[in-house]
Amino acid sequence: MAFKLVVFVALVAAVRAGVPYGYSAPVAHVAAPVAYAAPVARAYIAEPHAPAHYDFGYAVNDPLTGDSKSQHEVRRGDVVQGSYSLIDSDGTKRTVNYAADPHNGFNAVVHKEPLAVAVKAVAPVARIAAPFHGYAAPALHANYY
């Protein structure tokens, strides 16, 4: 029942809002037509299609970690040629030469070669122990929560 009362009061308030002060006759209001904007057709100007041409290459040789790899690739239009090499976990160097074109598709040739490992002879080193003074530095502990 309270809902009906609220709706009735809102309706009366809406009607009274359209009536000028001191004028008792109802004023007819006609809703203005809703403006509709048609979607704007966008004309995209196609850029002339130029075939891709690039040369790309990189190399990594880190003696500290032993990471050694390289790649080089050349593209002229739809023809791609390149190669990459890396050191596999078994100690061999893998080199892959590849080519791709619309007529032959993708072709790759893999070569594996063992790496030449130089063994250095190390002379024994005499080690002298530092004198022990009976003091150990306190250990640092990190607490993670």
UniProtKB/TrEMBL annotation:
Q: Which residues form the signal peptide?
A: 1-17
A single Gene Ontology CC term: extracellular space
Give the UniProt keywords, A-Z: Cuticle, Signal
Q: Which InterPro entries match?
A: CHIT_BIND_RR_consensus, Insect_cuticle, Insect_Cuticle_Struc_Prot
Q: Which domain of life is it from?
A: Eukaryota
Transmembrane ranges, per UniProt, are none
Name any one GO molecular function: structural constituent of cuticle
PROSITE patterns noted in UniProt: CHIT_BIND_RR_1, CHIT_BIND_RR_2
- Identification of the protein by name: Uncharacterized protein
Q: What's the source species for this entry?
A: Tenebrio molitor (Yellow mealworm beetle)
Q: Source organism lineage?
A: Eukaryota, Metazoa, Ecdysozoa, Arthropoda, Hexapoda
